[in-house]
Every structure is written in C-alpha cells, then in structure tokens.
Structure to design on (763 residues):
C-alpha cells in the first residue's frame, strides 16, 4: 500500500520516520529536543561523528511551504555543524526538488540523505513490522477509506466510515488497541469498559474498522442482542458491534429487564460467537453499568466476562499522552487559525493537559468548530477553562438514567463525607441516607442495596483508596453532584436530614453559603427536620476528624460544638437554631464551673460570635466572659499556637485595650520560659517554621523581644535542613500532572508545529 501520510500528525510522522531509520540502519536513534526551533528531531552519535535529522510534514503547503521554511533551518544547521544531516518529509519530491533542497544547505545535506514521500513508502515496504506497529498509518489511509466507501455491504450498514476515519486520525497510539485486538483474535469477544468520555466508542470503532479492511462484514446492533442473533450467519466472516450493550439490556425498564431472560440472551450470543471461527463481537459498556448487570445476574457473574474486558481510565493517560490527544484533535480539526493561536498563546495548551479534569470527550468538544463558533476568538480560552472546570454534562445522564436509587444514595453519601472516607464509615452513613431518601421519595429498599450499589459505582464513579477506603473517581464526579444539588436542592436537604456526622452537614452548608444561593434558601425554609438533624450530630459524643495519614474519630469539646453551630444559626436564623445556641452556651458555662477553658476552641467561639450579623445572637456579657476566661487561662500558661489564636480574636488597638495587651505580654513571658520544650515538640521543619512565624507575630503585636528565641528556632531548623529533610507540604501538594522540564519542552516543540505548514498570508 502506498501512503501520502495525510492521516499522521507531524508528531506521528516524526515517530514513524525514527522507527523506519532505526530499522533500516540497525541503530538506535535518540529523540533529541534542545528547545523550540533548534533544528533537531533525532540524532545518532558514534566516535567523533554525529548525525542529526529533521522531519517535516508540510501536508498542506507542499514543496512551496517546505522550501520556504527550510531556508530558516540553514543558520541553525551551520551552528550545530553535524558530520551528517538527514531530512525526511511527507512531501512528494522530484529529483529537481531534492537538488534544490540540497543546494539550500551548501553541501551539508547530500541528496541521498533526503527522504521524500516515495522514499518513506519504499522503507515501509522493506520493513513491514514498522507498518504493522504504526496501525494508524494503514488503518486511516485513503486506500482503506476508498475500499470501505466502495463496499456495498459496509455502506448499507449504519457504520459511518468517514466519521470513524476522521476519529482514527486523531487517535493517539497506546497499548489498549493492541490489547483489545489480541483479546478479539484469541477469544473472539472483547468488552470495552470505562467511565463516560474516556474513548470506549473510539477504540471499538477502530477495531471494527480494522476488520472491515480485512473483509469482515459489519453488523451494527442497535436495540438488543437478539437483533444480532437474528443476523448471525455461520460460515460468513461477520464482526458484530453493540455499543452500550449493558445499558440497552438492563436499563430500558429500570432494571426490571432481567426478568425477561435478557442476561441469558447475552451469554448465549457470546457463546455462539466464541464457538464460531468466522465471528467476532465488540461490546462497549460504562463500568458502572457493567458492574450493575453482573451484580443483578448470577448468569452473567458465571459467564467469565472479565477475561474479555479492557477497562479504560482517564488516569491511565500520562501527561505526554494527554498532550498528544489534544495536539491530534487540534491538528486534524476544522478550528480556524485564530482559535488555534489562542491555544498556543502563552502555552495555554499546557493548562489543558495539566488540568485534573482532562477528558478526551471534552477535548473533542473544545476542538470542534461547530460547538465553539458561538464564542469569539478572544473568549475561547475562557470557554475552554469553564468547560474543564465543570464537565458535569459528561456524567449527568448516567446519574439520572443509568444507576439505581441505591447507587445514587451511595454516591451522595461519599460526596457528603468530603469525597473520601473509610469503608466502615461509608456503610453506616449510606444506610442512614438511603433510609431517608427511600422514605422521602417512596422507592423500595432491599438488604443487598449496599453491596449492589458498591458494585455499580466501583471504578465507574468511585474508586478504592488504600486498603479499606474509597474516594471519588475524579474531580468531575464532585462537579456532577454539585450540579445535581443546583438542579434539585431537595437532594441536599436529604443529605442533611440523613447525616450521621457533622462533617456531612458542614459540607452542604459550605456549598450553600459560598456557591448555591437557592440551596441556602432551601435549608433555611426546610423546617424542623433540618434543625433536629443538626442537633443530633452536634450532640453526638464523637465526630469524624481527618489526619494527614487518614481519618478517625475524636470527642467534641463544648467550645467546639458552640463554635460550629453559631455560623449555622447565623445563616439559618430560625427560633429552633437560636434555641440550640442557647442550650450549647448553657452547657459550656456549666462545664467551665468544673474545668478550665480549651483555649483554641474558645478562641473559635469568640470569633464566631463577633462574626455573626444576626441580632438575636448578640450576647455581650457572654462574649466578655469568653474573653476573660481565655486571658486568665493564657496567663497561667499556654503554648505558642494558643497565644496566637487569642491574639487573632481580641482587639489590641487603642489605650482602652492596654489591660488586654499587658495580660498577653505576661502570658508571653510565661511561654518564653518553655521555648526549649516548644522546639523539642516540633516534629519537622514545617513545625519549626510555624513557630518562627508565631514569634515574629508576637514581636509585632505585643512589642516583646524574641531575638534569642528566633536564634534557637533557626538553629534547629538548620539542623533539619542539613539532614536533607524536605517540607512535607511540598511533597503532599505536588500536582500529579506536573511536567519535568524535558517533558514540557518536548510538548512545546510538538505544539510549535501547529504554527508551521500554513499558507503564506495574503497580501
């Protein structure tokens, strides 16, 4: 087969040329990036000699564009001064063209070292293994496209050949294609599973397309598996494709379809294909639906479907692969030049590939002109960021139509627990919320709801975290639940009323207070059920707390209870909430008759009272009592963090507050006597830096001398640094999509090619 290489991006072509020359010369070429426009795509060095090579695509502008830009390469080549220079291009070159190109470089480029389109095809003929490896080359070739377009059997199906051809051009080569093809060749059935938007249909279409090129007849199943069984012809090479097969089978009637033996129809058809050497079957499904179907059907559980399954995850893409996905979509898109330039401006494409919500479906969306044309060029970057920041549309249909009520309850529960928790806590919280939702919305509950819901959501909406915990699959699932709550605030009311811990109510209230005004209104007008739930969780003996290494439970202090409830009361402003605040104040005052105040929690109470704007919460005498007790306790002895928290909430300005300043200065002198203990109690350099910042705060606000103390802290800090300890926050906060300088420069080189191979501007 002869290729014009239109189906390859410049990056694809570069990799193909490298592989061909490695095979032809039996050497290993180093892909070499020295930075943008430095004139090197690969090199080979041995002894005193060194060879460098460049690959130029120029599909759109041909020999004219190639000659124009090669003139810019001459000074770069002179500067590099290699012993040999090789140039490869997808442009068809005549002898005269090669001579003209060689002449540009003044003898530094031999005609024999120029590889044009015809030369690359000759190399492919000599190295068929390279052609097979670069499946995109032949799969998306014009020859295969023309063959399929002229195939009457293919054109009579609903398989959109030209659309799939365009999709293959954008595809980034990965191991999943070969893995799925191997399963199909060996077992004759492959199931492609994954979350919405990860590329299931694209992979399925590529497998189908490859078989059509080999002469297999396509059968596109649209309604149910029985449709495929009716079209099955023994002895005829047929490849069946059923997209979203579990959804069509199990979800059409709200999961009641299993009673119609549809699971048996699936397993029978799979066995029929397995037994036929002339049949192949490609099935796609979302992971949550696959798990749901297997959970509901004993027959499917015992059918060995997992051995046929290839699961796609967005997290499987490296940053470089993400960049290639974006690059290919843009290169082969119909986006006008202005939009492409916006992606290149200030390396905006790097923000996209680093984004935690990167998803191939979103990339397809932002690179399709018909979908973005309503946005002016100067608003394109803002549109892209808004799409990435809130991609909930990808998930909403699955949430509303394709998972069970129990699965929705489980997803809402995990969200209410900040999106991450241990399995035991999740199960208890699920049962409470699921009970509330079932009563509220009138759906039935079953003993197996917990296990079934977990099976549905696992690796589809949620994923394991460590040995016994779970978390959201990715940030876009959180966005989904946010969108669900915006659409139906009653969902959040259920989450409050069905809460088992204060952390759940806090999560919903923060969302209402900061983002969703309608939710705040819904909470304040929901009535006594909400206040009863708040009272129940805040009066519990313990609460969930999070640590850097996990989570656990700790006891409430009376101060902490009050500090948490005052902001809620200030927002909800009902008599029931005011009554709860008064009850908590009375309880705290009673405890203070028996014990000293807890300084940090007491400071939060004072801050909450002074930050309240509801007149009914004003209580000057209690505020004064809290302040007096905190100062009294600090004078008896306090830590640096306790002294810092008191300074944060009291007023030290003006002569009227001089007595408070004097009391805090006395508290500081007591603290100063324990500085050695404070230093010893620092576990790492983070703690030492925090102590240093506290001392500097005391010097500014209290007017005290801290020089000797700072010297002691800095001395200890230096010892930590000498031992090579690194700040824990720097380790924990590293973005999982941070690029190394070399990778980032390579991506810049790749995207820089979008500026080349453009026609000269019209003058």
């Amino acid at each position: 087969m002869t290729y014009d290489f239109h189906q390859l991006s410049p990056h694809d072509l570069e990799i193909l040329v490298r592989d061909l020359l490695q095979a032809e010369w039996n050497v290993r070429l180093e892909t070499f990036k020295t930075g943008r426009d430095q004139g090197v795509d690969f090199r080979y060095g041995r002894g005193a000699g060194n060879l460098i090579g460049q690959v130029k695509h120029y599909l759109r502008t041909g020999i004219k564009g190639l000659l124009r830009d090669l003139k810019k390469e001459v000074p770069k080549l002179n500067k590099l001064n290699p012993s040999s220079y090789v140039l490869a291009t997808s442009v068809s070159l005549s002898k005269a063209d090669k001579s003209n190109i060689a002449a540009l470089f003044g003898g530094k480029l031999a005609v024999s070292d120029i590889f044009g389109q015809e030369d690359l095809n000759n190399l492919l003929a000599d190295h068929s293994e390279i052609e097979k490896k670069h499946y995109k080359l032949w799969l998306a070739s014009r020859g295969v496209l023309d063959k399929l377009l002229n195939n009457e059997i293919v054109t009579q199906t609903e398989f959109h050949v030209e659309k799939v051809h365009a999709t293959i051009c954008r595809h980034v080569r990965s191991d999943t294609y070969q893995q799925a093809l191997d399963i199909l060749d060996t077992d004759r059935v492959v199931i492609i599973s994954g979350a919405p938007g990860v590329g299931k249909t694209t992979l399925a279409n590529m497998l189908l397309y490859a078989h059509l090129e080999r002469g297999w007849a396509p059968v596109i199943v649209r309604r149910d598996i029985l449709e495929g069984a009716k079209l099955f012809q023994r002895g005829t090479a047929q490849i069946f494709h059923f997209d979203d097969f579990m959804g069509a089978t199990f979800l059409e009637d709200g999961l009641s379809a299993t009673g119609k033996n549809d699971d048996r129809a699936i397993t029978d058809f799979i066995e029929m294909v397995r037994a036929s050497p002339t049949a192949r079957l490609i099935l796609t499904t979302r992971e949550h639906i696959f798990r749901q179907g297997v959970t509901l059907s004993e027959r499917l559980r015992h059918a060995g479907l997992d051995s046929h399954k290839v699961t796609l995850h967005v997290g499987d893409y490296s940053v470089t692969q993400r960049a290639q996905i974006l690059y290919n979509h843009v290169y082969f898109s119909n986006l006008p030049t202005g939009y492409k330039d916006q992606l290149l401006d200030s390396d905006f494409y790097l923000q996209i590939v680093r984004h935690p919500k990167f998803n191939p479906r979103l990339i397809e969306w932002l690179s399709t002109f018909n979908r973005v044309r309503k946005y002016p060029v100067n608003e394109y970057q803002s549109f892209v960021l808004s799409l990435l920041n809130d991609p909930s549309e990808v998930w909403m249909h699955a949430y509303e139509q394709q998972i069970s009520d129990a699965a929705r309850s489980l997803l809402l529960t995990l969200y209410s627990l900040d999106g991450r928790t241990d399995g035991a806590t999740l199960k208890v919280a699920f049962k409470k919320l699921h009970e509330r939702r079932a009563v509220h919305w009138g759906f039935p509950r079953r003993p197996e709801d917990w296990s079934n819901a977990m099976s549905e959501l696992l690796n589809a909406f949620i994923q394991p975290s460590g040995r016994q915990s779970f978390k959201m699959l990715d940030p876009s699932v959180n966005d989904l639940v946010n969108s669900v709550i915006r659409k139906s605030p009653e969902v959040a009311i259920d989450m409050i009323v069905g809460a088992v811990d204060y952390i759940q109510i806090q999560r919903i209230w923060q969302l209402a207070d900061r983002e969703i005004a309608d939710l705040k209104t819904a909470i304040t007008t929901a009535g006594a059920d909400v206040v009863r739930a708040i009272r129940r969780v805040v009066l519990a003996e313990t609460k969930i707390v999070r640590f850097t290494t996990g989570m656990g439970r700790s006891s409430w202090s009376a101060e902490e209870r009050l500090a948490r409830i005052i902001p809620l009361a200030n927002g909800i402003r009902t008599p029931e909430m005011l009554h709860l605040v008064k009850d908590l104040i009375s309880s705290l005052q009673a405890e203070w008759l028996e014990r000293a105040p807890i300084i940090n929690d007491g400071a939060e109470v004072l801050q909450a009272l002074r930050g309240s704007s509801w007149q009914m919460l004003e209580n000057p005498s209690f505020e004064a009592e809290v302040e007096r007790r905190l100062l009294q306790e600090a004078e008896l002895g306090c830590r640096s963090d306790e002294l810092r928290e008191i300074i944060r909430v009291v007023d030290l300005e003006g002569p009227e507050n001089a007595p408070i300043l004097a009391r805090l200065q006395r508290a500081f002198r007591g603290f100063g006597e324990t500085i050695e203990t404070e230093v010893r109690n620092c576990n790492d350099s983070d703690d030492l830096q925090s102590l240093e910042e506290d001392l500097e705060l005391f010097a500014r606000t209290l007017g005290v001398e801290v020089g000797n103390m700072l010297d002691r802290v800095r001395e200890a800090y230096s010892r930590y640094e000498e031992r090579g300890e690194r700040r824990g926050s720097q380790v924990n906060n590293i973005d999982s999509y941070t690029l190394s300088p070399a990778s980032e420069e390579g991506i810049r080189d790749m995207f820089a090619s979008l500026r080349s191979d453009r026609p000269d501007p019209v003058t």
Summary: The first strand starts at residue 30 and ends at 31. Confidence is low (pLDDT under 50) at residues 33-37, 251-259, 725-739.
